[in-house]
């Protein structure tokens, strides 16, 4: 291979570029990113960066003396992939021909239909989003967060710390029930009410009130929640439209094998846009975790450089963390199929505990609140025992 | 030199945290080697003694940056700076640490707290 193009310049793209060099690839390396910024870390955007305790320089993912010998095309959005010569078409008309392609285009925050152009309505995905939201929160007032998932919960927690009046609206009866299950979702989301943040569950959002600026969130049960700032945290959709017609199979994200290879030879996909085959579960799963974006590119690059001859390693069980109201929340594994969840250390009332999810008696997932030491032991054990 | 703990009280695969400022951790690897590094991850306030010890490396319990116990070097983000390493001496079954005179690479939140600023 003489040219490899990495499309996407966030954690997954940077990790792929690093893996290419560390695995001995010595050819031309082009990294294409739609944002104008060098790779930066997203988790602090809803936490320390939003709170103002971390600056932009602290977000940089590259070290000062790092040189990947890459050509960086930043502020350049990929618009298409031509399968005949594996060339990436950029929105500004340029083409980048490559022998190998790493798709790392991530995901975009979902928005509420019909809210475009209404001032005071934010999503949080990019550094530019975070700058805008940070400035808005600095003015204080009433914040309504639509969506009680992790991003919404972290924004609510940070805004509470900044002194705003915060309400979280969640359409499902229990927030976080998807990733954590009903019981633990209820316990973790009780952090809001512990701190006097209003949590409204089981009610959908009908629309937003206000002419040019948002003034209220209108609920389906007829209530109207006054708002100076609204954050929409209702998930993300994979950025894969640009692959249409390329021959790269796309379903919910790029459909990949257990080593990141796509349906098109010479193209692998990593990070939030990629749905890798999970041999443990027998299904394709799009994992939107930071640690997946960090760890999986090495396997995908090995597959790319060897044309699939490299045996894929068994990926570690997916791990993520969240910080809310000063509590460290850590989770590893999958709750799908778990039949029991048991608190094995601490108590849920103290918001310091460890809970183990089991299927047929075997641990399949672990949740910790303020238990990093014990959690790490369980995480290690799960990695070594999960079949 | 600072006495840390008795080697017999530190099983292989375990770590002992010395509560000095900044804290230092002594690791006893599965292969029987003993190392000492700064306990605080250079990215955020997390105790590496709580981390995932594998071979001569420890992974931060929070965000998965891995530090080499021999050199202090970090392998992957989010941490970017190495931790300090300290000399270890085992004498008569006692583990001693000779502290490095280098400046520590503490995370921004801890540096701010030590400086009396907002954490």
Structure description:
The complex is a heterodimer of chains A (387) and B (119). Chain A is an alpha/beta fold and 387 residues long. Chain A has three domains: 3-108 and 236-305, FAD/NAD(P)-binding domain; 111-232, FAD/NAD(P)-binding domain; 326-385, Enolase-like, domain 1 (2-Layer Sandwich). Chain A has seven helices and 27 strands. Chain A has helices spanning 11-22, 48-51, 127-137, 150-161, 177-194, 290-305, 372-385, and strands spanning 3-7, 28-33, 71-74, 78-82, 87-90, 95-97, 100-103, 107-109, 121-122, 142-146, 165-170, 198-201, 205-209, 216-219, 224-226, 229-232, 236-238, 250-251, 253-256, 267-269, 274-278, 283-286, 319-324, 327-333, 340-347, 352-359, 362-369. Chain A has a five-stranded parallel beta sheet with strand order 3-2-1-7-20, covered by helices on one side. Chain A has a five-stranded parallel beta sheet with strand order 9-16-10-11-12, covered by helices on one side. Chain A has a five-stranded antiparallel beta sheet with strand order 23-24-27-26-25, sandwiched between helices. In chain A, helix 1 packs parallel to helix 6. Chain A is globular. Chain B is mainly beta. Chain B has one domain (2-114): Rieske Iron-sulfur Protein. Chain B contains one helix and nine strands; from the N terminus they run E-E-E-E-E-E-E-E-E-H. Chain B has one helix at 108-114; strands at 2-6, 14-18, 24-28, 34-38, 52-54, 57-59, 66-68, 85-91, 94-98. A six-stranded antiparallel beta sheet of chain B has the order 1-9-8-4-3-2, with no helix packed on it. The longest helix of chain B is centred in the C-terminal third of the chain and has 7 residues, at 108-114. The relative contact order of chain B is 0.21.
């Amino acid at each position: 291979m003489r040219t490899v193009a990495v499309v996407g310049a966030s954690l997954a793209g940077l990790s792929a570029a690093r893996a290419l060099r560390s695995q001995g690839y010595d050819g031309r390396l082009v990294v294409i990113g739609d944002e104008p910024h060098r790779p930066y870390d997203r988790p602090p955007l809803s936490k320390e960066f939003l709170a103002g305790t971390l600056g932009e320089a602290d977000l940089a993912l590259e070290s000062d003396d790092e040189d990947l010998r890459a050509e960086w095309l930043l502020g350049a959005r990929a618009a298409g992939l031509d399968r005949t010569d594996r060339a990436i078409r950029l929105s500004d008309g340029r083409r980048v021909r490559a022998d190998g392609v790493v798709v790392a285009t991530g995901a975009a925050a979902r928005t509420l239909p019909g809210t475009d152009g209404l001032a005071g309505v934010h999503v949080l995905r990019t550094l530019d989003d975070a700058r805008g939201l940070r400035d808005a929160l600095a003015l204080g007032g009433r914040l309504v967060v639509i969506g009680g998932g992790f991003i919404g919960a972290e924004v609510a927690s940070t805004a509470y710390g900044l002194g705003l009046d915060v309400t979280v609206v969640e359409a499902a009866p229990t927030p976080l029930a998807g990733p954590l299950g009903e019981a633990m979702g209820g316990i973790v989301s009780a952090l809001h009410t512990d701190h006097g943040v209003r949590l409204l569950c089981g009610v959908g959002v009908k629309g937003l009130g206000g002419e040019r600026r948002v003034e209220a969130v209108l609920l389906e049960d007829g209530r109207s929640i006054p708002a100076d700032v609204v954050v929409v945290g209702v998930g993300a959709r994979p950025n894969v439209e640009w692959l249409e017609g390329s021959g790269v199979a796309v379903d919910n994200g790029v459909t990949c094998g257990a080593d990141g290879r796509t349906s098109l030879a010479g193209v692998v996909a990593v990070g939030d846009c990629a749905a890798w085959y999970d041999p443990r579960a027998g299904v394709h799963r799009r994992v939107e975790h930071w640690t997946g974006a960090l760890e999986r590119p090495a396997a995908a690059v090995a597959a790319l450089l060897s044309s699939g001859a490299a045996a894929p390693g068994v990926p570690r069980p997916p791990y993520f963390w969240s910080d809310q109201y000063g509590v460290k929340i850590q989770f590893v594994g999958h709750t799908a199929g778990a039949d029991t969840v048991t608190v094995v250390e601490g108590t849920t009332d103290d918001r310091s505990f460890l809970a183990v999810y089991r299927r047929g008696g075997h641990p399949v997932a672990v949740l910790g609140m303020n238990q990093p030491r014990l959690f790490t032991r369980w995480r290690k054990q799960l990695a070594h025992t999960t079949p | 030199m600072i006495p840390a703990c008795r080697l017999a009280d530190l099983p292989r695969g375990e770590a002992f945290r010395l509560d000095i400022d900044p804290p230092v951790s002594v690791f006893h690897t599965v292969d029987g080697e003993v190392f000492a590094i700064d306990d605080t991850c250079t990215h955020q306030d997390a105790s590496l003694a709580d981390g995932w010890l594998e071979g001569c490396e420890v992974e931060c319990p929070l965000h998965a940056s891995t530090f080499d116990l021999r050199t202090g070097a970090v392998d992957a983000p989010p941490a970017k700076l190495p931790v300090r390493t300290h000399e270890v001496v085992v004498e008569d079954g006692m583990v001693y640490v000779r502290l490095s005179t280098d400046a520590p690479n503490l995370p921004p939140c801890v540096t701010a707290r030590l400086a009396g600023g907002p954490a």
